[in-house]
Structures are given as structure tokens and as C-alpha cells.
Amino acid sequence: MANILNISLYGLAVFLVASWVFVWIMHLMAIFNGKRKLHKKCEVMAQTESALPGISIIKPLVGIDTNLFTNLESFFTMTYPQFELLFCVHDEKDASVMFINRLIDKYPEVEAKLFIGGAKVGVNPKINNMEPGYKAAKYELILISDSGIRMKEDTLLDMVSSMTDEVALVHQMPFVCDRKGFPSVLEKVYFGTAHARIYLSADFLKINCPTGMSALMRKKLLDDVGGIAAFGQYLAEDFFFAKSFTDRGWKLAISSQPAWQNSCTPDIDSFQNRITRWAKLRIAMIPHMILLEPLSECLMLGAIAAWAVSFLVQCDPFAVYLFHLLLWFLLDYVLLCIVQNGALPFSKTDFVVAWMLRECCALLLFIRALWEPDIKWRTGTFKLKWGGVAHEVKTKL
Asked: What pTM was estimated for this model as a whole?
């Protein structure tokens, strides 16, 4: 019996060390892919304007924040020959309507329209909000862009340069603009380390990873399956957009420019609620993440790996754990600098504190996502079934 137990423990230790090594490979893949693909000079400039496809940009909006006007204005000032802006607002009393009208008056040369009221085509409020704008879109490419995104003048050119003949969707890796305050430091550290590692390594392995905050797609391919209304039963419509394309043999591509999130500086609770909501979506769409995701986090993986290595080679587990933490920290710092493409806008002390807070909270937020699976988003509460299908929960008055 003792021999059987030792053999089982040996096999478990070998498996855990192999998993540990694979996560280090993911770190290296993310660094390599980030260095290879991010912040590259746009090659499409050499084309004539007539060769560039037109783009219909759909902007779903709810409410305002202190940066909304400048974020929206960045779409009016892009250097791209053919595009239209389709602003979608559910309520005519929404404060964002005032900003939209001001910008339309300020830039009369830019083709822009405002759609109010939405259309009830599913449970997803974002899809419902965008449906009128989608139906009115006249160009062959659709860009769905969240309200908090800030564009550079050449962002559309950059995204179109990745839209080759075999590609159906070009996505931007989420990142954040430089802003003041520790919550913004925490947000930048998260999107430039933990999130970037998963995102870039998944892109390297050709795994479905696009987020819907900034995605350029072929409209005809969406129309072939019923348009965006066909995805109204899902909250994570971005995942299912991409899945629809890959299931039909099309490819996905990442843009060299990140999606520059620039909403007002969040508080830490709001940021953590957002991360928890994403975890709930992943758990529902990809159930095996219940086991895999905690094991990919720094602190838990390090503790497990320290036991496994010490069991196999009789070394000090504490020394293994310290080595694990130090190497993970350094690789995260390298990756963040690659994604930032320059000096970090905060001190190394701020980075250390934000990194430690993010890693210490990761498992707690995941447990919270398991414990409270209902999703509160915008004005509704939703339950998710396995596979990602959602239905709205009617609240009692």
C-alpha cells in the first residue's frame, strides 16, 4: 500500500512540475508574441485611399464619465478615408446624447448618426443597443468599439493592415491609457501582466481570445448567421463572434495597437467587480476553467510546484517558492514594459505594491465568482447556463 501511495504521489508531482513548466512557457510565448506583434509600424499607408475598405464604427453608449468627450472625439479625428460613426444609445435622456450632438456639430465633415431606443433581440443589453446601428451600417467592415476606448489617428489603418483575405476578425489587446491614482496603476498592471500573458499566449497558440471592446469584423460573415442579433442570447458576445468565424474556417488576427481604455479612473472595488464578472463568464463558457484557472495563478501554482519539486529532488520548498515568485515578478515586469512600449508612468514601488495586491486577490476573486455566479451588468441581473447562454433575472419590487 505504501509503495502504491508513493508511486501515486510521484506521478502527481511529475504532473504538477510539467504544468509548472508549461506556465513558464506561456510567459515566454507572451513576451515573444508581444515583442513580435505589438506597436509595429503600420504597413497599409502605402496603399491608395481607394484600395482601403470602408468601415462602419458602432459605438454603444450608456451614461458618461469625465473622459467620454475626449474619447469620442478621438474617433472623429482619425486619418482614414472611408468610415462612418454609428452611435447607439438606449435612452434619449442619456447624458451621452449631448456629447454626441456636440461632436457631430463640431465635425460636420465626418459621417455620423445617432440611434436611440435600441431593439429587443435578446437578453444582452449591448446587442440590443447596437442592433439599429448594425442594421444601418453600409460598409463591408464593422468595428464594434466600447465607449471607454480612445483611438489614435492611425488606429483604423493599423487594424485594416491585419485584415488579410483569410482573416474575419481583427482584435485589439486590452490595455489602458496612462492615468493618475493607484487604482489606475493596479488596472495597468493587471492588463499588462496577468491579462496580457493569457491573451498573447492564447493568440500565439491560435486559441479564441478576442474581447469585444474593440473588434473589426466582416459584416457579411455576421449577416450569414443572422447578424449580431443571433448572438443576443449570450453576454460574452465577443467570444461567440470569434467562435462563429473559426468554426467556419476563418482566422483571427491581433492588431499591433492595443485597445486604449480611457474611462475615468476607477476605484479598486469597481475594478475588482469587473474582473470577477469576467471570471463568471469564463467559468460558464469554459467549465474546465474551474480547475485550470486557480492553478495558473502565481501564489497557488508556486506553492504546489514547491511541494512537487521538493518531493522529487529533496530540496528546500521555501527556496523553490521564492525562486518562483522572483522569476514570475521579473517576467511580468518585462511583459508590462513591452505592452507599455516605453517607460512606465509610475514608480517601481507602485508596481511592486500593485502586483502584490493583484496576485493576492486573484484567488479570492475567483472564489467569489464561483460563490456568486449571477452577473450584475448595466441595469440587469443575469444567470448563465453552461455554454454561456444567459437569461435575465427579474428582480422583485
From this structure: 0.92
